[in-house]
Amino acid sequence: MARFEPSRRTVMAGAGALAAAAALDLPTGLAPAHAQGAAANQNPGFYRYKVGDITVTALNDGFAKRPLEGFVRNAELADVKKAMEQAYLPSDALSITFTTLALQIGDKLTLIDTGNGDSGAPTSGAWMKNFQAAGLDPKNVSTVVFSHFHGDHINGFRLKNGSAVFPNAEVMVPAAEWAFWMDDAKMNAAPEAMKGAFAGVRRVFGPVAKDVKQYEAGKEILPGVTAIAAPGHTPGHTVYAVSSGSGKLMVMSDTTNHPALFVRNPDWSAVFDMDGPQAAATRRKLLDMAVADKMQVAFYHAPFPATGHIAKAGNGFELVPLQWSSAI
Fold it and tell me: Is the pTM of this model over 0.85?
């Protein structure tokens, strides 16, 4: 049998490993903890990019898992499972992620939606931790813009105990969304399954109702931010065109849920779409617009950091994710 003769490089590498173990106060022969099995937590979920002179910070709020059966109203479950498999996703359940945006426009910090707060699934509620990890302070938020009034977008504004999270922020909401959810007659006539959503809207906005600023679609509501009507998901669902210099971003809100399903199959209707056919028509229109104008897009429910571009693909579209960069 040949005798193993360690090279100088092997000896030096071994010595280096022993020195590293000693420096870390590790028993000889053990690797650092990250090599043995790290804690289950991820790094903070925020990511910054620029739209012209506007700095955008994407803020992750965790996820909620939902069974796949019944999730798409107008497609066979077998077809939905096939779409999931083609995207290398589980075929039994969908992990729905939540990503809000913070816009630094000059010296003003604006939020678009606020996440689940302490009212979502146990796997959500990471928003404030990520917001603070990004070096941001709730007291410095000057404006909170809401795209629509589903709980995963508004509950981060007011916690279960009633406390306001952003004490100095102006609140801006779509006029059509406010008209629907704050209408007593619509609340009283709503099916039982929707009454909780009406109550949630009033819990969040009731204490500040007199100060809420309603905005109309088609107008610039903040410097470089124009509201675009996107009805179907909810009556007043709104998306935003953000522009600065040559930068253009379409904030798609809930125009789609997971892109693997609803960007690739824009005529599918998610269970959350209040008017499925209208939501599908809106989806095609906005995705076509993003392609034609070569706009960067940001989605609320796409995989983090939930931004990229849209390309045509057959009868549907494809999300082309933004390449991650260490530079802002």
Answer: yes
